[in-house]
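During the no-cost extension, the postdoctoral fellow (Dr. R.K.) reprocessed legacy sequence entries with the updated structure-token encoder. One reprocessed record is reproduced below for audit purposes.
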Amino acid sequence: MPAPRSTVRRGLAALAALPLLAVAATACGYGSEAKDDDAKANVSAGGKKLSSDTVKIGYFPNLTHATALVGIQEGTIQKELGGTKVESTTFNAGPSEIEALNAGSIDLGFIGPSPSINGYSKSQGKGLRIISGSASGGVKLVVNPKKISTLDDLKGKRIATPQLGNTQDVAFLNWISEKGWKVDAQSGKGDVSVVRSDNKVTPDAYRSGDLDGAWVPEPTASKLVSQGAKVLLDETDLWPDKKFVITNIIVSQKFLDEHPDVVEAVLRGSVATNKWINANPEKAKASANEALEKLSGKPLAPEILDPAWESIEITDDPLAETLKTQAGHSVKSGLLKEPNLQGIYDLGPLNKILQAEGRPEVADAGLGVK
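Re-encoded structure tokens follow.
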């Protein structure tokens, strides 16, 4: 029986020839380092250090990663870690975060299902585990209404996704395939031009006319709408019960094996954060926006923040059945061979926490560790 869930109250032309656009560079080469002093409590005062001095957490500056934004901003995750320090890094999309996880630049990450599946498959089941859910929904196809009125009008147009092989990229390629149209998954060329564009770049590219639309997460979708785009499709409408995993939590298997106490502490912080978000949606929305301001230099305007926040559901449930479906989409799109996902989930620590709170366990769809 799934845990209860509450809806949150809620120049590109030159770059397009590249297979994907690079994320912001840092010393580690994978993402942007969040400033440690931005968190309200980087190390809990007088807190006992766990088995690791630090835990390096990756996430995106997207509202679909509200658990990380709010949990780090409010110090909820840090509180559970005591004297073990949180170090955070942000990414544009999942494939870059998987690279960082594999390189040891992060230990744990908030990430979409498709990169999780790909990372697990490429490591032959030895690289990572999914240990919790985080969010559902919050993804839209938005288009220029002067060029596109119906879904059929997408043929021949330039539509952005965040990165080759990321969750939105896979979803869009699958949707194109179901329309009977042909697109080369690697190059993005075909009946629709799929342009891999950093979410930070996409609004400017749309404004300049280099893009006709985008299949993107929030708040990028609502940013485009604020520039005159219209929502042509909400991805939730493609899923049974209008639920699908957009963000889950992964951990490197090495870190999980060596520091299970740290992983469990992060999960306690995640569960506590999600509970607070759902109980205090307006305060949580403001907290997420404050975190985004620190990461990007400016907050989201209400006309962007409010509709974006409304479309996202925060949940501890990883919605594992939908991940199985998304794995099929990756195979169908040609980005992945049929994967063996047995063991991709380790929900034992999460279910232990939920049980302690008198809440139902969440399911792994038969893909849990033996």
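The radius of gyration is 19 Å. Confidence is low (pLDDT under 50) at residues 1-30, 34-39. The remaining legacy entries will be reprocessed before the final report is submitted.
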